[in-house]
Amino acid sequence: MAGSWTSWGGDVHLDWDPATGREGLADAIRDAIRAGRLARGDALPSTRALAGDLGVARGTVTRVYADLAAEGYVHTSQGAPTVVVADGVQQASPPRTRPRSPEARWSLLPGHPDLSAFPRAAWLSATRRVLQHAPASAFGYVDERGVASLREALAGYLARSRGVVADPERIVVCAGYAHAISLLAIALRERGELAFEDPSLWVFRDYARAAGARITGVPVDGAGIRVSELDSPAVVVTPAHQYPLGMTLAPRRRAELARWAVEQGGYVIEDDYDGEFRYDRKPVGALQALAPERVAYAGTASKTLAPGLRLGWLVLPRTLVEPVRAAMATHGWRTPVLEQLVLADLIGSGDYDRHVRRCRAAYRARRDRLLAALPGYLTPHGISAGVQLLLTLPEDGPGEAEVLASAKRQSLALQGLGPHWISQGEHPQGLVLGYATPAEHAFSATLAALGQTLADVSR
Ligand SMILES: Cc1ncc(COP(=O)(O)O)c(C=O)c1O
């Protein structure tokens, strides 16, 4: 059983099994410090409060705190709170990785486009052109922000396709959104907490935490993030298609969030991971256009081309360009030049747009086939955009664990909603289905495996 302490404002989750006793409790607190859930300067709950929450003797907690003080993790003093004095993030346990299931025969794991649709011929032609024409100097150590021709191509593409207020000088090309969020976490570290939507993809919270950010959650309701509950200097949002719940941030909330950022001097990180894929309605433009000096726009080639390329981009408020460039420089990071030149060529030739249009039509057709295959007692959400949808499970039906176990029997990899939540407690149960993931030839069989999985648990 895992415990969590609740009588304390921070509400830090403790993975503690009472059967492991005092040693186990000390381990759980060490882990929380190492993983950055508890940062230097944080006060631990009083021995009385923690003992009460966990249902153990107060003396046990007192001894645990004394052990941790002797090891240099915390400082205790008579009559004052026990305070964390170690910096954990350098020794943080490795972030949990994305769900992958190479052993499953079929997969509806979210996060992938159809890799078999990668535009090999267009990429090859663009690579040829680049190698024929690029000067030798192009292969040197270029500006940390990325290759100028790609930043120019992206500025034009993002302005026209997503309404982003883009200027090549403010663009930083990086190794996907995973890299972008790490860079921003470093650049914003001094400002304090970084808020994420609750729920959100845990992978990126882990990356930000590993980069030194203190993470907090802000609830999401039917209209998107509850801006009125924001109490952090910076926040990460997915306005076009909330991940994983799937709604579009309501117009009044978009305006409220932009106003919050301008009035409070806060920063918004806009994760526009699938903005190119919108099916039934007009595309929603980027939030960044409402407050370009407060919103850091992040895009990626992971959904439009392939995640293996590791190509993403940031369009930054002017005040963040130098901190992000400096974060690249101090870590010795640069994005590979050849891929940048090829992507610039692909955008310039129109092949990128043509590929995105083809994929949009294909994914829309898949979405329709998936919806048609779902049993009526399940409710899909977030179906008008992107490459994944959320399927909520009825309260009186099978839960996530049961469905995932059934999927395993069908050799089908599925992702539950559970790990996305930041707050503890009861949450709706659901499945996040990535319908772009299977190769085209495997799509029908994958739908059949899903049908069998659901039929088996509804009996
Ligand atoms: C919510 C969200 N943001 C961003 C990304 C893109 O991540 P990356 O560019 O690191 O591949 C994904 C991909 O799965 C995602 O699901």
TrEMBL record:
Cite the Pfam families for this sequence: Aminotran_1_2 (PF00155), GntR (PF00392)
Question: Where does the record place the HTH gntR-type domain?
Answer: 19-87
A Gene Ontology molecular-function term? DNA binding
Keyword rRNA processing found: no
Per UniProt, which keywords does this protein have? Answer: DNA-binding, Pyridoxal phosphate, Transcription, Transcription regulation
Keyword DNA repair listed? The answer is no
Which family does the record assign? In the C-terminal section; belongs to the class-I pyridoxal-phosphate-dependent aminotransferase family.
Name of the protein this chain belongs to: GntR family transcriptional regulator
